[in-house]
Amino acid sequence: MTSVVLTQTLPNGRAMSLQQSNDDFTLYLDVQQAVCLQVTSRTTNLWFVQLLDVALSDSQASASVLGLALHALFDAEPSLLKIELALGTRPDLQEPLQYFGLADATAASSGSVLSLRAMLRQLPEFWLPQLRPHTFPLLQTMSEGKRHPLRAPVPAGEVYRRYVLQLNAQLSLRTVDPATDVDIFHDWMNNPRVARFWELDGDWGMHRDYLHKVTADIHLHPVFGCFDGQPFGYFELYWAKEDRIAPYYDVDDYDRGIHMLVGDEQFRGPHRVAAWLPSLAHFLFLDDPRTRHVVAEPRADNAKMIGYMQTAGFYKPKEFNFPHKRAAMMMLSREAFFDQFCL
């Protein structure tokens, strides 16, 4: 009996479906069969998989769709960390799989490659709908007396998307638009629960001006988090080198930070935080491969948020005094995220 394991829309707009029949898995792209795989044996963290068929003959194109199949298997089985893939009649795929970072040919038996969850989760084409053709060039500049790298312009629209199996929902991040998003922002900021921590309650005009200010600031990237297209939270993503947090730790040129709030009451709860908090970190690590840390500075008395962050892999090296609050320094390293707390 065949069952659908997962279906999702990829960042490029294509529809992907993974179907299972016993130990056989078939990946469909836009309803066309693309890859057939068979699990020959498994442990909790490692599967041994045989490639049965791939629809394309070109090696690079075949490696690309096979990467989607591996990506789907990792999505379908959260405890799975490694897949040893026997290539069978397609040994020509070994080189492109290794070249594109989809697998390691040196860590598997002859005729096989080893695909690691921690590798695939670092490949932006699976998650980002707006891919840059290359890493943004490094050029130092000055702003407000601070020396830092020139930053790439913030893209409009959706910037990140992933399917959350545990919630059976698409989680996405989209850049805030001051022309259309003031009403939602205004309602959330006047929620007493939010106002306690953000201290931005006020009238509609104040919130319109605030959104225009943050969207014009090149060191900030304000986004709405959405479940199945419905906004649930507001997040300010920032470059730490230019931010007020920089003097309080040994900041790197490409460290990123986050300010967070959930505005829609129906999307609160630990199970929701477990989906969106790692997704925020994931987006920031993908947005620039030079980002080594994601940081945050919640109020030191916000025990609930600090606990959520520690569950997601952040650690608290210290507390410190901002002019306006006592803050907890929270840090998440790139290595810890992908090796230990990966999606």
What does this structure look like?
With 343 residues, the protein is an alpha+beta fold. The protein folds into two domains: 2-120, Aminopeptidase, CATH 3.40.630; 134-340, Gcn5-related N-acetyltransferase (GNAT) (Aminopeptidase, 3-Layer(aba) Sandwich). 26% of the residues lie in helices and 34% in strands. It is built from nine helices and 17 strands. The strands form three sheets. Strands 10-11-12-13-14-15-17-16 form an eight-stranded mixed beta sheet, sandwiched between helices. Strands 1-2-3-4-5-6-7 form a seven-stranded mixed beta sheet. Strand 10 and strand 11 form a beta hairpin. Helix 4 (182-189) packs across helix 6. The longest helix is centred in the N-terminal third of the chain and has 18 residues, at 59-76.
Give me the secondary-structure topology:
Blueprint: E1 2-9, E2 15-21, E3 24-29, E4 32-42, E5 46-54, H1 59-76, E6 82-86, H2 94-99, E7 112-116, H3 117-120, E8 140-143, E9 146-149, E10 158-164, E11 169-175, H4 182-189, H5 192-198, H6 204-216, E12 220-227, E13 230-239, E14 256-262, H7 270-287, E15 293-296, H8 303-311, E16 315-321, E17 326-333, H9 334-340
Parallel strand pairs: 5-6, 14-15
Antiparallel strand pairs: 1-2, 2-3, 3-4, 4-5, 6-7, 8-9, 10-11, 11-12, 12-13, 13-14, 15-17, 16-17
Helix pairs in contact: 4-6
